[in-house]
Here is the input.
Amino acid sequence: MDYSNWMGSTTAIHGLPLGNICLPASHDSGTCGLTTQLTQDLDADEQKIVTLLQAIAAKIQAIPGVTPYIPDAYAWVYDAVILTIRNLLTANATSVSQQLADGIRCLDLRIYFDSASQQFYTYHTLVGTPLTQILGEIAAFLGSTKAEIVYVTFGHFRGFELNTPTFFAMNAAITQALGEYAYPQLIDPNTEQISNPVFQQTYEEIVSYGTAGSKAVLVNAGYATESPVETFWPTTYSPPDDEGNGGVVAGDYANSSSLAAMISDQQDQYKNRGSLPFALYMLLTPQDTDVTGVVQDSDGASVLDLAAALHPSAAVGGTPTKVAVELITEIEGMGRGRYAGPVGWIDAAGDGEFGIALRSAELHGRTVRLFAGCGIVADSDPEAELAEAQAKFLPVRDALTE
Here is the structure.
């Protein structure tokens, strides 16, 4: 199937109301291009991250002799962890244009205004892609397809207030880029109510409105229950929503570490939806607990067997294990000795506890060999990784030289 034109090609949906058509959606759709720059106006949870980094930097800065290696401890710590943070915040690794080509028809965009550059961006704690680029990708898709419907929600505004010149400037940029494709809300002059609720309009009615072709339904979270601008639909038309959605669409987040619990929650919401269109929205959250398991044949396995099966971990041996270990052996150029090996205890019953020997020293007579390493990934900066390894040597080295 040509996923770029799947709606136009699927004739079975053409007579259906939009509320009866499943629109594949992506969450935080504009996070594919996150930078390493934090936004301003961080919320309380995001500020905790900065506070933690500052605390770690202060401890590093207090290590005697570290300044020549790490002149700016905060910048060093920030650079060391920001790539991991960025990976966690990236909900979508593909561009908006690729998502649309893959069949996604419901986009969710967080909008940030950077006062320094006077530009709008997508964001997710970190600054993302310029809004002009995202709008250009959506417009290019709509212009290159025959009869698709793309549902776009603009919300989670940061860096500006509603009903300010900046807010209206954002609206103007969106309208300029997508206005010709927008399926507008129409207000009945007698009732002052929306006369064409979008979920009740059929696919054919939407794509044939005005100049026939692909259409964009633009939802602006800056407008609560009604929008004074016909180009934008109010946030009540943005699924999923909370209980204050004005009876426009049913559905709410199911956020749990249990897939079964999420499915059950969504089933209950679906049963209680009445005649409203339903938004299925589930977010799987891993529990912050230890990973545990039970060895079924415990009589035949000791803690040494388990350690052998788990060694080396990805932290010291990479992944996939076989390929990574072979590559490390080839390019590392040194024997690790006992470094990164299991270290722990075992009793006569075969029970015990093992960890990984990192940041260690190996004694041979009057010679001491120090070990430390770093987790190398594709985006690693060699100089920063070297500085990190040198800093890890300091506590043991200084203790030996005092």
Q: What stands out?
A: Residues 160 and 166 are 6 Å apart (CA to CA). The chain has twelve helices and twelve strands. Residues 298-401 form one domain.
